[in-house]
Automatic annotation (TrEMBL), chain A:
Protein name listed in UniProt: COP9 signalosome complex subunit 3
Localization, UniProt: Cytoplasm; Nucleus
Lineage: Eukaryota, Viridiplantae, Streptophyta, Embryophyta, Tracheophyta
Source species, domain of life: Eukaryota
Residues annotated as domain PCI: 189-358
Keywords of the record: Cytoplasm, Nucleus, Signalosome
TrEMBL record, chain B:
MPN domain segment(s): 11-165
Protein name as catalogued: COP9 signalosome complex subunit 6
PROSITE patterns: MPN
Keywords, ordered alphabetically: Cytoplasm, Nucleus, Phytochrome signaling pathway, Signalosome
Main location: cytoplasm
GO molecular function terms attached to this record: metallopeptidase activity
InterPro entries with a match to the protein in the record: EIF3F/CSN6-like_C, JAMM/MPN+_dom, MPN, MPN_CSN6
Natural source organism: Brassica carinata (Ethiopian mustard)
GO BP term (any one): protein deneddylation
Keyword Cytoplasm: yes
Coiled-coil features, chain-numbered ranges: none
Amino acid sequence: MNSTEALIASIQGLSASSGDLSALHGILRKAEDSLRTNSDVQLATLEQLDPSIHSLGYLYLLEALTRGPVSKAKSVLLIARFINSCDAGQIRLASEKFVTLCKRFKDRVLELKDPLRGVAPLVSAVRKVQVSAKCLTALHPDCLQLCLQAKCYKAGFSILSDDILEVDQPRDFYLYCYYGGMICIGLKRFQKASELLYNVVTAPMYQVNAIAVEAYKKYILVNLIHSGQFSGSLPKCASSAAQRHFKTWCTPYYEVGNRYNDGKIRELEAVVVAHSSDFEEDNNLGLVKQAVSSLYKRNILRLTQKYLTLSLQDIANMVQLANAKEAEMHVLQMIQDGQIHALINQKDGMVRFLEDPEQYKTSEMIEVMDSVIQRTIGLSKNLLAMDESLSRDPLYLGKVGRERQKYDFGDDFDTVPQQFSM
Amino acid sequence: MAPSSSSGLTFKLHPLVIVNISDHYTRVKTQLNPPPSVCATENASSNNGEAMLQPNPRVYGCVIGVQRGRTVEIFNSFELLFDPSTETLDRSFLEKKQELYKKVFPDFYVLGWYSTGSDAEESDMLIHKALMDINESPVYVLLNPAINHAQKDLPVTIYESELHVIDGIPLLIFAHTSYTIETVEAERISVDHVAHLKPSDGGSAATQLAAHLTGIHSAIKMLNSRIRVLHQYLAAMEKGDIPCENSLLRQVSSLLRRLPAMESERFHDNFLMEYNDKLLVTYLAMITNCTSTMNEMVDKFNIAYDRNARRGGRTAFM
């Protein structure tokens, strides 16, 4: 009893300035074990503290409480309120505790089968724990997972729009990119989804992990939908472990990809039906169906490169659609999406394919260019900073110094065998 | 603290001396406070004692050159060991070095000494007096290693010794002298090379293109302010605050009629097209810039971290 009261008093007293806060942090860390075992710590003790001023102390007490007897619903409510009102500076002093608390929050919310309640608090939690907009925290994948479960993709997308430059744990990074890719697929932004999934597939890894395999399957499908290409080999920068083992896990997808490349709808559909149980297991059936429908679009696109005008009936025949009506619907859809430029003459059922009318001389174009250039300037600054920090890296300097000595032997650059050992 | 010298000698300093002194200082400083990761394995034992010595060690050395008449030209310098116990420079070493240099450069002889720090100190006078038997009036070159971005000129000062009578006692004190920088062709090339290694944030318009564009920018700014003045004047005249001056109005209207037709549709079209073209070219330049930076960085990364990369392969340095 006394210890808890003393603790409360010290929390209330020392939450003012940063020097006090570090002292308070030390006290709290020592008192952690006693908090865990002490059964006197109840909700009532929490009432004495204000979460926005005494965030650090509140965090420790809340963590000890929610581990124990407090009911799920109450704990969810308490944690949500805490996250919304806590002070970011104090939280960053004890970020691991905060992360465990938020993970527990996420688990409880999922158990209560109400993921929507957890989305907003977790988004704000991510912003508070992030030291700068470039760091990836352990909370990012959790937040994205909740957004996926709750199907509110827009909130998740707002987190994805930061450019991540620093990563702590590789697992966080894999999960972040995988969930991020799924959110982008939900929003139908296949370009960004493809980039995120590409990051997972080519991330350095010594052994194949399940996240990467799942991501690769989705990556194949998203590529088919977005750019209509499938290549049986991974990009060169993927790790050697990935290049060796992914094929064995993804055989049905490889078949889909190969049939897609051939361009025949019937065969593609046959393959899909044959492997539909595999796709069902991986929850990818929806994506596969989208890929099949995108094959029609791909074929029509190919037609625009060969013909100037074509009748709707001919289009239907070449693309293996049922009749001219369906062809007209497809072409109309594509014109609206901006994938092709064409004119449909309904009187005699002819379609005339046009060039891209964009002349790049409007003022809207100026704004687009300006924003793109600004982004590139920012990127260039980041690259230069990284380059400079690498040049100062003692590992690099050490190796450069050692190598330079080898080439000091005259101009014989041709076939100097590396016999000279340092 | 030190007054200006009145000896009438002109001093010429070569950049090689400045580079030597700063190099000496940087080396000593880095060796005393090595970066944490590299020397952890090597100097673990010897590092414990000298972990954080004086953060700004003073280095000492000798400057040599030629004196012709009233012009003193300082060409080169070399380092000397300072003995803190006796507070003098290592004499035998100095003489040995002097002989060696005499063989290569017979014209040069010891003109003085250098050190680093922010101001001349009393203890320096002892060293100065010790050198007086080699050269009757040595010079003292002082480099201030503190980096001050606001300061525009070099942090190098040259002191001479003068005999002043203060309170009836003749004392030697240090006196400022002015100097100019003199470069030989080889030195100009190396200084140019070092200057181009400036970090990314620099500020000053080092390249020709940037200078040209800044010129245009200031010209346009001035045009804008002048037009604004005219505009205000005309508005005031319209409101009635200033009496109408017809001659001025006539001049303004003739100026306006000389302007090219800016309102036509075709002008707009052409203007936007050219503007967009320039933007596209800038974008292309930025992308190329980024790509080249990334390329260099990837090379460096491969050298530093890739275990089995270099099997007799050549890398393009710089």
